[in-house]
Amino acid sequence: MAVRQLHFTAREDGGPPWIGAMTPGTPRQLVELAVRAGASGPAPGNAIGLGFLSAGRVAALVQSRCADPAGRAHFFHALLFDDVERELEGLLPIDLWGGPAWARDPAAGPELPEIASLVPGDDAGPATTPRFAAGHAAGLERVLGAVQQALAAGRGRLVLVVPDDRAAALWISATCRSLPHPLGSAVTFTTRAARPAESTALITCTTPGAPLPTHDDVTAIDLTSTPPPDPSGTRYASALAQLWERDSVPTALRLAGEARPALAAADLEVFAVLLEVAFDLPVRAPADRDLLLTAARMAVERLTGRLSAAGWQRLSDQVRDSGPVDAAGWSEVLRAARDRREAVPAELFGAYFITALSGDDRLWAPELSAADLDDVAERVVVPALASSAPHPALTRLAGHGALVDALIRVLERRLANPRETARLATTTPPEVARLLAGRGTDRIRLLADLVLARHGALDPVRVMLDGTRTQQVDWRLFGPVLWPGDPSAGDAVRLVRQVRPGVLVDSGLAARIVARVLDRAAEPDPSDGRLVDELLRSPVAGLLEQRDHTALDAARRIVHLRGAVPGRGSERVLLSALAAANSLPDGVGHGLVAAAASFVLRADPALHRDLLSRALDEHAPVFLPAYRRAVRVELADAPPHRIAAVVVAWRQLERQAYRHILVEETLPAALRKRRGRFLDRVGGALQPTGDGLGAERPNGGWGKWWQGWRAEHERRGLLSVFRRRDGV
């Protein structure tokens, strides 16, 4: 080491400096650099200031002191470096703050010796700075982020407002010690400037009250209190602030120092991602895909073998969350990582492996071991199976038999838990199930069968009845899987006929089938009839509560009454149904009475009369309203002879009250939209119909009675539409 020295004095009024002494042979360039370092105004009063400027390798470190009691002149002592990083021998320029190398007074003669060794001071060195940095992490993050951005951009300066010159030295020391050594050594600074606007240093410190510069490229930060967070702060500054609190900065900077080529300021954001994963640091926002890829490339190419397995795992987790979208970029990085034996986890190779399959380009594909393929299947393919969202990995399995084999091995283990089988059966696509069909043990076959049955490719009843399975199946879990919705009437009939009652009950299918029938009991369709009969004949019926059993019986009656034609024994069927309706819930009871009413209306005229009479005699309060509703619907579209038969039957009822309700109230409502010519034909059909039934003729005959009935209701307005005689 051979460090030159320079003593000069400058007046506060800005006059030219006076060179008092220097090391012989000092280049003019270094003298001018030293003068510029003090040009921002010396430290005011009796304060000591330290300034550092560099121009490439050459640099000047200048300390200023007051030179006269009035404070009108200042003495400057400069240390001049031809190669600052080499000659400092691992020290930072700020380390010399308060060190023994500085002269208190100008030299007596014109020559100064070279300094053979430099000793750091105690106030802002490596012993005191860590505690200060850990206690001022929020402010340091703000300062370091601004310094990092200025270094990366090659422009911009900071002015720090600090309480005193020692605080200034500590802030500069903490900032420089937060950077890789070559970058920290290049940070120019002034610890105390009377005129900060004139400083050209990257960091200029001043005290409260000093005039602050207003240039666009100058950032002023008040450090006399904790500054607010910078929304545009950097990842690197955030990481280093946390590492100071953990006392881990030396480890982080040793890692930075191993990068080849050395890290530049523009590399620090990428390096910050490696610090985040290496030290498991919390982050404000996850790194984007491009930044993750660039960080992985830095780890492989410039920090080979330096990122731990845990760091690679965390990086892999972040990549998997965002997806290795740039397959070509990841192909290059991961191929190099494999060749250099980096501790890249198998799932990252697997995620890339799956992504690479989706592109049209022929990309490098890693040859994964069986264990790695199993890991890919466990961490990538199985979660994709369990996801309800489409996943590209599943659509490309068919072309990779080794990965399908790995998936089968993994599923063999996982499907030992039947709940896992049920869960995967609800999300696995049928295309994957076809790849699994016929392979593996009963567990794999059951999963494939469940999936294919859910999607209509297999008969779910046959799947449930499959007697070739060697292991007992817990249908309590799989009944809802096979039938996400209610089984169809056809499936339900087959289930009731062919599946053991205990299995039906345990799987929940019996309850669902019964509930389906009961929900539709008031208005069942014909397909429900067979199902109701099967249920009532099966042992399942014995497991039902009495009210459910009664409702099922009512549904059976409704189906029968709606489809049957009245004949011998109809009276018993009708009266039994009406008696049962009285004890049923309203919905089912009303449905049964409505079915009975339509049943009566389908009878031939003579039987209609007899059935109606018996129903009204025994169940008029329940039956008559339903019958009237059915009549209004039936007669609205019935032909003339059918209407005539109903009218004759009503006229034969013994109780005058029922005749009146039906003939004088119900009939006008049913015929109110019929035209006059149609009613003429109804009147013409009354005589032969009445004679055929042996009915007593009204006074004057059926024709006169019909005309009188029409006239009465037309007069009331109930049949006013009949006056339009131009239609049928």
Spatial shape: elongated
Number of helices in the DSSP assignment? 33
What is the total tally of β strands? Answer: 9
Fraction of helical residues: 40-55%
Give the distance, in angstroms, between the N- and C-terminal Cα atoms: 126 Å
Structural class: alpha/beta
User: Main beta sheet: strand number and arrangement?
Assistant: 9 strands, mixed
| Uncertain runs | 721-728
- Mean pLDDT, nearest integer? 88
Question: If strands are numbered along the chain, what order do they take across the biggest sheet?
Answer: 2-1-5-4-3-7-8-6-9
Overview of the structural elements:
The protein has 33 helices and 9 strands. Helix 3 (about 130-135) crosses helix 5, helix 18 runs antiparallel to helix 19 (about 440-455) and helix 26 (about 545-565) runs parallel beside helix 28. A hairpin with a 6-residue loop joins strand 1 and strand 2. It has a 9-stranded mixed beta sheet, sandwiched between helices. With about 725 residues, the chain is an alpha/beta fold. The model is unreliable at about 720-728 (pLDDT under 50).
Please give the structural blueprint.
Elements: E1 4-11, E2 18-22, H1 28-37, E3 49-55, E4 58-66, E5 73-81, H2 84-88, H3 129-135, H4 137-153, E6 157-161, H5 165-176, H6 181-185, E7 189-190, E8 203-206, E9 218-222, H7 235-246, H8 249-257, H9 268-279, H10 289-301, H11 309-322, H12 327-339, H13 346-358, H14 370-386, H15 392-395, H16 401-414, H17 418-425, H18 430-436, H19 442-454, H20 460-465, H21 475-482, H22 489-498, H23 501-506, H24 509-519, H25 526-537, H26 546-563, H27 570-581, H28 586-601, H29 605-635, H30 640-651, H31 656-671, H32 676-693, H33 701-715
Parallel strand pairs: 6-8, 6-9, 7-8
Antiparallel strand pairs: 1-2, 1-5, 3-4, 3-7, 4-5
Helix pairs in contact: 3-5, 3-7, 4-7, 7-9, 9-10, 9-11, 10-11, 10-12, 12-13, 13-14, 14-16, 17-19, 18-19, 22-25, 25-26, 26-28, 27-28, 27-29, 28-29, 29-30, 29-31, 30-32, 32-33
Domain GTPase-associated protein 1 middle: 132-210
Domain GTPase-associated protein 1 N-terminal: 66-117
